[in-house]
Write a structure and sequence with these properties.
- With 339 residues, the protein is α/β, with parallel strands linked by helices.
- It is built from 14 helices and 16 strands.
- The protein has a single domain, classed as 3-Layer(aba) Sandwich (Rossmann fold).
- Strands 2, 3, 4, 5, 10, 14, 15 and 16 form an eight-stranded mixed β-sheet that branches.
- The longest helix has 18 residues.
- The chain is globular and about 60 Å long.
- S-adenosylmethionine binds next to helix 9.
């Protein structure tokens, strides 16, 4: 029996026993660390950015903040706490919609957002929200990199995809098979070339479903994305012929997708060029794309740091990771889109 790589990933990550479907948050699992876990200042910064830019864009009309893939609601709590303290008028005029597929995390989210209960709606699918307003500020951190994907390769002028077989000893064995027509059609539709003999990751059903839902969501939106990756004119991204997919387990990085089944994160670098094209297909356009470091530094991150005075050197060193080129500053990118 074989399953295609995206099906394998769906089982590994989103099955009822999957990595992203149990009662522990990513913080509790401790396999990798995300920006809101590094410092509250990350969320405070986003809150200030929303304060500064959205009223003008939405003509002072009420709007929703919609966070996709919030996990335990840590970033939401940072944003709402800061907004309440720094811009009460705006806080009173917005609602905060949380879209998190892992329904087990609802109690963690409610705990993190205690005091904000009246402001929030929690749901596991964008299309299920009943409270998103006509105007919305969408945001996500490390959402797109967590979706299942097809693992493909372009060889001798043809596309192939990885499938996974189980041998008699119940080991997972990867094999290369002819690509399914429906995947090939999606690849062709995106219109990006592939380099010969390079593996690449191509988003699967969940990604396209998300765009179908977003298309029908708010009439006007800003969409702020934080994720690791690059804008690549080819489907393959980066210099590694094996592709960008990788696993995180207990803070160790590996490319063995077939060990620690359902116990490790499996992720990939986001191709922002592909992302941009997907947004264009729902009539949204890119406003800017830059490194996280540049985005934070040119939009007042230092002022926020000064205002909150990190309590000690250790705290300061942690915060620096968000902007340091050797840490998250360059690997992480920020894209803002508008519709
Ligand atoms: C890598 S984690 C990032 C969590 C958080 N944003 C942070 O920065 O700490 C990705 C999150 O997206 C959620 N997720 C994945 N697919 C989703 C989907 N289709 N809809 C909503 N949430 C999803 C996962 O359950 C997980 O909580």
């Amino acid at each position: 029996m074989k399953v295609y790589f995206d099906q394998y990933l769906r089982n590994a990550l989103y099955h009822k026993d999957g990595y992203y479907y149990d009662e522990s948050s990513i913080k509790e699992k401790g396999d990798f660390i995300t920006s809101p876990q590094i410092s509250d200042l990350f969320g405070f910064f986003i809150s200030s950015y929303i304060s500064l830019h959205s009223s003008k864009f939405f003509n002072n009309k009420p709007f929703s903040i919609v966070e996709i893939g919030c996990n335990d609601g840590l970033l939401a709590s940072q944003i709402l706490n800061h907004l309440k303290n720094s811009n009460l008028d705006l806080y009173e005029n917005i609602n905060y919609i949380i879209i998190e597929q892992n329904t087990h995390l609802k109690k963690n989210i409610l705990l993190n957002l205690s005091g904000h209960e009246k402001k929030i709606e929690i749901t596991n699918k964008l299309k299920k929200s009943k409270k998103i307003k006509k105007n919305a500020f969408f945001l996500c951190n490390e959402f797109f990199d967590s979706l299942p994907f097809h693992r493909c390769i372009f060889k001798n002028g043809s596309f192939f995809e990885t499938a996974v077989k189980v041998d008699t000893k119940k080991n997972f064995i990867p094999i290369e098979v002819e690509i399914r027509t429906e995947v090939l059609d999606l690849i062709k539709n995106i219109g990006l070339e592939a380099n010969e003999n390079f593996f690449f990751e191509f988003p699967s059903k969940e990604y396209f479903d998300f765009f179908d839902d977003l298309k029908e969501a708010s009439e006007n939106f800003l969409f702020l994305i934080f994720d690791y990756g690059e804008k690549s004119q080819t489907l393959n991204i980066g210099k590694n012929p094996n592709g960008s997919a990788r696993c995180f387990y207990k803070n160790q990085i590996s490319t063995n997708f077939y060990e620690n089944f359902q116990k490790q994160d499996i992720t990939f670098s986001v191709n922002f060029q592909l992302l941009k094209k997907s947004f264009e297909s729902i009539k949204a356009k890119e406003l800017f794309f830059e490194t996280q470091s540049r985005f934070l530094l040119t939009n007042g991150f230092v002022e926020i740091m000064e205002a909150y005075k990190p309590s000690n050197l250790l705290e300061l060193q942690k915060i620096k990771k968000l902007i340091s080129p050797s840490s998250m500053g360059e690997a992480f990118k920020v894209m803002l889109l508008v519709r």
